[in-house]
Structures are given as structure tokens and as C-alpha cells.
Amino acid sequence: MKLSGLRVIDLSMYLPGPHLTLMLADHGAEVIRIEPPGGEPSRHYGPYEEGTDGTPQSIWFRNLHRGKKSLCLNLKDPEGKEIFLKLCETADVVVEAFRPGVMDRLGVGYSHVKARNPRIIYCSVSAFGQTGPLREKATHDMGAQALAGVLSINDNGDGKPVVPGIPAADMGSAMMGLAGVLMALYARERTGQGDHVDATMYDTLLSFTAHLSASVIADKQPPQTRTGRSIGGAAFYNVYETKDGRYIVLTGREPKFAENLLTYLGRTDLIDLCKRDDCVAQEPVKAYLRDTFKTRTQAEWVEALSKLDLGWAPVLDLAEAFDVPHAKARDMIVTDPKGRIHVGNPIKFADGNAQLSFDSPALNQHADELLTGLGYTPAAIADFKQRGVLG
């Protein structure tokens, strides 16, 4: 696999860091989860299914930690910290997702690890970054979305923001962190030196606004969902309720799509309005489509629209989405030999795709293996366990 031979130490918890290291593990990296006493918090979030050892295991945990190894360490204990630093001497990458300053206070920050291993790629995933006035501010995904101005346009056109369904800040920062790690590994091939990757939710979201920020840059005016082409203003990039209380989305503003649908509906008089780069002028089209889509059920519209060359889709719930044949054809929904469902890896190649391990580790499952590899004796390992060094 692409990343065979790469050793990654993962201290992160919840979503961003674990998702980053999952991408690496699925493609062959050895990922060692350093869990706090009591374990990664997501171990304790239901629902549960039977794990590899026959005991109940959190599906959330399994979704993000398959194929990884588990070592529980108390980093506040000097011996726990030393075990961690010894592991870092053998590693290529460290990933952490604490607030800036936490790792330094524990004595395991970038400077401490670099002193032991100058080739280390140390990736910090945080809300606001290692520098700047907000660096120590506490938040999860939605706070970054709010301060980056992104939550304000998640408002259904009424000016009232709602809780986002997908944690774009979390998952986007994971992918930026992954890109940074791979760039740093590439640079290390030339220089022999490691680096510190500073990946943030906030920076990631701001970089996502390339298509939305023109009015801000030109006129100091924020985008509005009523007039924004791709955020609710355009008739052919919008959400429409159907007769049965479900939804159809139109997803392509190209004139040919407007012409095809409006011709089918017998309203060619509205086509010219859709060619205008003026969402307010398209209000009559939106009003007509809102009324029209309510005349048939979602299933009836699916049957009708499937015959047209048109950008559109039915709005599915997540359970329905997991049953779409395309998801299975793309190996994004996979069933293991025990009948358990897994979400696949989205990074694909012409040669050498991910190989999913369907097993996720029990807490501290690999303690003996990893510590023996560092030169500790069975007696020393047993002593660590007794004294709580291993959580």
C-alpha cells in the first residue's frame, strides 16, 4: 500500500485528528493511538455493535479507529511521557488536536519531540491555530463556523442560522492537516528535516469562501442567501418541497438545464429570467417551481426528472444514502464478513487503493507489543500497568 512503513503517533480525539489518521491507516500506515486514562471519549458513545473481541464497541469509535493500535498513556506521569517520547523517536508523524500550549505544558510539544527526532512531522489540528489572538479560545466545529462567517449563510434564507448537519470545520481541517503532513513528508525527502504542520478549522473555512467572498472584497458586503447564486438565490440551485413533504434539489444553473426543465413543464416564458445573472429577477421562477414541485411526490418527480438532462437530486436521509448502489460501487459502503457496515475510504488511485481493516483496537490492546519494541522488559511493563503509567 502507498504508506506501508510509515509510523504515525496519534494523540487526537473526537473527529478531526482521528479522521486524518484513518486516511493514513487505510492506506497502510501503522497508526498508534495514544489514549488517555479511560480511553478515547468516543469509545463511550453509542450505539454499539459487537467488536473484534466479542464485547460491545462504539460504532463511532470503530468508524474512526479501524486498523489502528491502542496504547493508553498517562502523559502527566514522567515515565508515561518518556514512553511517548521514545515512541516518537521511532515515528515519522505525530498528530495532536489539543488547544495550543497544552502539549508544551506536558513536555511533549513540537520542540520536545523534535529534540528527540529532528525528522518528525508534527501536525497540530486546532480551532484557531498556534498563533493569533484566538489561539487559546475553546470551541468545537460550530464556533469556528460562526467566527469565519460561514454559519451566517446556513440560514434557509430567513437570516436565522441553524446548527450545521455536517461538521465542515472539523472534517475540512482534517483534510488540510492530511495535505500538510504529506507535503512535509515530501519535503523531508529532500531536506532530511521534519516540520510542524499547523492545521486549523478557522483557516480552512476561510479558504473555502473563494466563491462567496467577492462582495466582501469588492464592497465590504456579506453574501446574502436570497441573492447568492449558489447559496439560495438562484432558481436552479435551490431546494423544493414535494407533495409528500420530501424534497428535490435543482443543482445546475446552466441555461440548458433551465431550458430543459421549463420546456418540459410548459413554461418556456420563464427561461430568459434564468439566463440573467440576477437572483432577484428569478423570484417568479422560484415561486413557480415551489408551487409546481408540490404537485407531485418525490418518487414521481424522480421518475419524471430521470428522463431529462438536468442537474438535480432527491434529498435522501442518511439511511437511504447508505443504500444507494453508487455508494457500494465506489466501495464507500462496505460490509465485513460479520455483516457489519463500514464507511469506506474516499482517496482512490488507479493502482493500490485502501485496504480496510475491519478491526478496531480494544483499549491498551497493543501495550505489550509496543513497549517490548522500545526495549522494556515484561517486568517493567507489568510495573507500569500496576502504577497507572499505562492508564
Features:
391 residues; Rossmann fold; 18 helices; three-stranded antiparallel sheet; 2 domains; alpha/beta; formyl-coa transferase, domain 3; six-stranded parallel sheet; single chain
- How many domains make up the 3D coordinates? 2
The protein's oligomeric status is single chain
Number of strands: 13
Q: Unreliable runs, pLDDT <50, ≥5 residues?
A: none
Number of helices: 18
Strand content: 5-15%
Quick one: CATH superfamily of the largest domain?
Crotonobetainyl-coa:carnitine coa-transferase, domain 1
CATH class of the largest domain reads Alpha Beta
CATH architecture type of the largest domain? 3-Layer(aba) Sandwich
Indicate the CATH topology of the largest domain: Rossmann fold
Judging from the principal axes of the Cα atoms, what is the shape? elongated
Q: How would a textbook summarize the main sheet? A: 6 strands, parallel
Average pLDDT taken over every residue: 95
State the distance separating the first and last CA atoms.
33 Å
Strand order, largest beta sheet: 5-2-1-6-7-8
Helicity level: 25-40%
Rg from alpha-carbon coordinates: 25 Å
Structural class: alpha/beta
Write up this protein:
With 391 residues, this protein is of the alpha/beta class. The chain folds into two domains: 7-207 and 332-387, Crotonobetainyl-coa:carnitine coa-transferase, domain 1 (Rossmann fold, 3-Layer(aba) Sandwich); 237-310, 2-Layer Sandwich (formyl-coa transferase, domain 3), CATH 3.30.1540. Helix content is 39%, strand content 14%. It has helices at residues 16-26, 59-65, 78-89, 102-106, 110-116, 141-147, 168-191, 201-207, 214-219, 229-233, 255-264, 271-274, 283-293, 298-305, 318-322, 325-329, 367-373, 378-387, and strands at 7-10, 30-35, 48-50, 56-58, 69-72, 93-96, 121-126, 195-200, 237-241, 247-251, 312-314, 333-335, 341-343. It has a six-stranded parallel sheet with strand order 5-2-1-6-7-8, sandwiched between helices. It has a three-stranded antiparallel sheet with strand order 9-10-11.
